[in-house]
Amino acid sequence: MKNIFAVLSVFVIAACSQNAPSKSGQLSVASPDKTLTLEFVVNKKGEIGYQVLHQTKGMVIDTSALGFAFKNMPTLDRFEVLTTKQNSVLTEWTSPWGQNKQHQDSHNELLVKFKEKDGGRLLNVRVRAFNDGVGFRYEFPQQDSMNDVVIMDEKTQFILPTEQQAWWIEANYDSYEKPYQHTPLSQVKHANTPLTMVAPNGLHISIHEAALTDYSSMTLISKTKNTLEAELVPWANGEKVVKTVPFNTPWRTIQISDNAAGLANSDLILNLNEPNQLADTSWIKPMTYMGIWWEIHLGVGTWNMGERHAATTERAIKYIDFAVENNVGGVLFEGWNKGWGQWGKREAYVVPADDFDLQKVADYAREKGVKIIGHNETEGRIEAYESHVEEIFKIYTDLGINTVKTGYVAEKGFINGEHHQGQYGVNHYRKIVKLAAQYKIMINAHEPIKDTGIRRTWPNMMTREGAKGGEWNAWSEGNSAEYLLTLPFTRLLAGPMDYTPGIFDIDYSHFEGKRYNWAGEPQTGDYRVHTTLARQLADMVILYSPLQMASDAVENYEDHPAFTFIRDLKMDFESSFVVDAKIGEYITVVRQTGNEWFIGSGTNNTARTLRLTLDFLPKSQTFIAEIYRDDTDTHFETNPESYKIEKIEVTSTDELPLILAPGGGQAIRISAK
């Protein structure tokens, strides 16, 4: 057996799901469809370990350890089984919003209660096996032998049986805004989660966590070839997690599918979170939004007051007028506040700029039926923000503002030395979400703690950034079409992302001489968006966010025929599914609300033709398909804004060709005739 450092090492070997241990001491739990099995084995020394198997494709996770090292406390590495309990669950639950309204939670559960072999400490391990993967967590029950604990290391392992192809970003305790790398697993050194892999037998596997609450975020560090081990984000003093018994850890999740589409369609993360805690969710409304934002990132306008200040009263009114005329639900005004750059002071959060009449703008928006999205940048000054945040939310409530975009631009950690992804950061972000719920405010967090499905429990936690968003196209080498086709199988497996698609002015070289960087110096560099215009529409469907930003400046949308797709777009769906996909290469997504279907399809830099069978439509009915597609001469580099709009009649027996230019896409709205 492999050397084990800490509390546990858990093996899952045989496809057995008996309630009691076999003669060899094995305990196992299988998925409802019997495809996946996880099994515990306890050897004569009291060491434990786990493996995960696929019924037809063999080993998924090889013999792997689980465990902890504590501060001022011996390690736990010798156990005996006290009791075991198995349970089967088949329930349905309804989400107040999302990609899907109805969810099925079907799993088999195994709870194993362990006792230290030569001591009195207790530890439970709970496993849930789903058809689309497995999750397990540690549970520290109430006990006299442990009270306050400081975890210095969690030794949970994920050992892959063979070399895999991996999609991952370099671990960073404060920023997820890194380029995704596609390498053999053996080249992964230290990665954030979700980390996604494809095995030689075609199995798609993604490792992440669910229900991250009052605990440190898990990263994955490579120990030996094909061996990944949990590395928790530390406090500033080096400790990882500080807890009082009893407590549960987050779920460690392994999503498993035969193909990329199945991975993207998985509900496992949500099913491992606690049910909705809000009695009233009627105020939580998904929507499209736009705002004063892109022109600032381009360097044409500024956040700060001055001659190029973007968020003026006059310009805000213009955005509101356009929004109400074009069925856009919300507007965002970044740089509205007088104290931009003076983080920690009251002016930075609640005092409007001299040229921005907040009361007038709020009254006008309320009169027109458009929601304002408030913006709170903190620069990572957590104590200062927390001292003002309740006043902010009270002011916003009085103004009719029920959505807040928070920001934590602090690449080297919070001002107090703590990390975004550490236990301190996890608790701060949750505090803001819970306080916002008291004031019936929805949250869109930028520079956030990573998503682990907490939107099920706190459905006002709508969306977040947590990856390289569209803003990177304004002032850097930007995001490739391949990167955008990696997100649905990595970052978006965790939950919705405020990527900010919808740019129509693809090549903005015409702003030459009018752009400035954040230091006020002339902006240089050949920056641009790296997809076609039709793909920008498709990405509004592919890259799901319940608060979906049409992110270009309003002037680029005025009188533009392609904006009709955004005008018609809904962001609250009854059902969604990926039809076909290959990581980093192509994807087709279908989303349905009422008697409308919105479809987004995209490719990498390779032109290709995909096929879409419309058998998801009701039979014996005729529908109208409005198609926004690349033209014959479209290319993301040379002719990105060339597109065509077509309307055709379709039925459930039809098949549509999806002809995609390099870096291109296709957006379709199907509605009743």
Describe the structure.
With 673 residues, the protein is of the alpha+beta class. Among the domains are: 8-271, Beta-galactosidase, Chain A, domain 5, CATH 2.70.98; 480-511 and 533-673, TIM Barrel (Alpha-Beta Barrel). 15% of the residues lie in helices and 34% in strands. The strands form 7 sheets. Strands 7, 8, 9, 10, 13, 14, 16, 17, 21 and 22 form a 10-stranded antiparallel β-sheet that branches. The longest helix is centred in the middle third of the chain and has 18 residues, at 382-399. The radius of gyration is 25 Å and the shape is globular. The chain starts with 7 loop residues before the first strand and ends with a strand. Mean pLDDT is 94; it is low at 1-25.
List the defining traits of the structure above:
673 residues, alpha+beta, Beta-galactosidase, Chain A, domain 5, TIM Barrel, 10-stranded antiparallel β-sheet, 37 strands, 15% helix, globular, disordered N terminus
